[in-house]
Amino acid sequence: MKIRIVSLLSVLAAAVMPLHAQQCMTWDEAYRRADSLAARLTLDEKISMMRGYDKFFLPGVPDKGMPYIFTSDATQGLRLNLNLPDPTMIRQIDRSTAFPSPIMLAATFSPEMAYEYARAVGEECRASGVEVLLGPGMNIYRNSQCSRNFEYLGEDPYLAARMVERYVEGMQSTGTLACLKHFLANNTEWYRRRSNSIVDERAIHEIYTPAFVAGIEAGAATVMTAYNRLNGEWCGQSEYVINDLLRGEFGFRGLVMSDWRSIYDWGKVVASGLNVDMPGEDYFYLDGDIRGRVERGEFSESDIDRMIRPTIATAIAFGLYDRILSGDKYRPELLDSLPSHARTAYEVAAEGTVLLRNDGILPLDASGRSILLTGRWLDELPRGGGAARVEGYDTVTPVDALKALGDVTVSKNPTDEELRNADIVIFTTGTYDTEAVERPFALPKADERAVRRAVELNPNTIVIVNSGSGIDMTAWSDRCAALIYGWYPGQNGYEAIADIIRGKISPSGKLPMTIERSFSDSPAAGSMPRGASFYDKARNEHFIMPYDILYDESVLVGYRWYEYNGIRPLFPFGYGLSYTTFEIDRPCCGRSTATVSKGSPARISVRLRNTGERRGKEVIQLYVGENTPSVVRPPKELKRIHKVELDAGESATVEFEIGSDDLAFWDVQTHAWKTNAGEYTLYIGTSSEDIACTIPLKVIE
Hints:
The chain is an alpha/beta fold. The chain is built from 19 helices and 27 strands.
């Protein structure tokens, strides 16, 4: 078997989906038609196009052939808006699939899975008349206390970019538009409207924008700005963020909307490149008298024309007006695909569950053995909250799934004797994560006490963690018999977890972020202001003083930080165990120095063998490091991934191409990408720490 992984440009050129999956005309033509429609609008109608309508609709002027466009949350499934102010405007479906959280999707390390996941979500949007899904989310996992990490795709910009581009293609293949969010550097949730992310130019380009660029290149139609300030200005009214970066440098031509209630100055908004203030209702910190501002000469009608053009052009370019006016808004027949969507949700959970520890107890042979099931999640499905909460249907709770393992007794508060006497203890624990709060890098205190007690009383304890990001597990992670990271697994994900426990499936998930030993090790330590409280809901935000978050680590985010500073994490990025074993053959890595020059990439092949006794999947990870960099750079950075499935004894050759662009850093002197000539090293392995072989690489002019 031979598998070839090439450069990003080659992948895009050869992709099955065209660059703009559902774009039915060029942007230039769409803007010409938009100008014709805008010319028919009165000033008041133009003003109405600056603001959203009825909470979840993009603006429109139905009498002029521009119907309202329905948007809905969220990345991990269609959140049904059953409490719309005007429910007669939309004919909602009565159910939607609750998929695993996006961070669990990232843990699959499978861009192909991201495509199928998004395509399924997009079909449910089309069935329900949703034109724009407000996702995918792609803010980088910088801070393990950020309670919205479960909505995102981990700490590494390369991994996030590969997942995002396929997500966008899958979503827009259904005719549902994707919305890239939240642009830019929204990496904390504590009073997020009051935070000011101080980020340098290199980190912006190398860490925080690659996933957005990948989504734009994949054809994403819309972008949502972030709540926070970036270097002093709120993102939704920042000319640097929208006009300079998003539209200028990255070439985005579609619609840019604000996050809900996140702009403050109409003069700045009109100049910034933002197109729609969402949700559009009046509120205390934004003056709604736009006509008065025009009459006073603060900005002109032509300024408003420039602001609303992309909204109209995007709807035209993707055929939304024609679809709605022709009666093609709803596709109820797509609900026939719900069983296949549920299967996709199961498969994502199966491939995204990460086995972090196993002393040999798994796969579990439960015959003749008593199992005690206890912990936080029993009759309740673990899930995140806020805009990303999707109820799902036919949900399978942990009890429902794990009872099928055998002789299972369920006890929410077991006695010491019950814990000691059980042959096996399965302990479910975790956190409830939701937007607009920060939560500690720890389990709730009662849960921490309970899991410590369980592993102390019974060494055959299997711990399942359901959370949206890392937690402190140092007191018990090496004392349990097995440790499974199950994230928020979706409506039927616990069936997949049960199938992994019983050995029906060999685990193949990998951590899309580093789990540190202590939050004090993190570059984000100290991000919350002194005196701030966890779970402090964002009420009366205007009374909170704006505060700075210093991204002093610059490009050293995640595993880059820990390796550069010699800090040993609890579990490294890219880590995850299997029930079989794999070996990357050293002879296939070669001993001679690979060379790269402009236009001439290096080609590297490695051979992966399944040396175990059962079928399984492994993720080959290729990292690159510059040996003597001219600026601060991490020891190594992820540049290629490939997930391979092999039978016992089977092998496959995987070929990679690495070009000069893959070795570049952002040069703050020239404000452009730069690749130094000189010596580099390729690292090939199965996590950021588990490196099987290295290959010297030379860049020549």
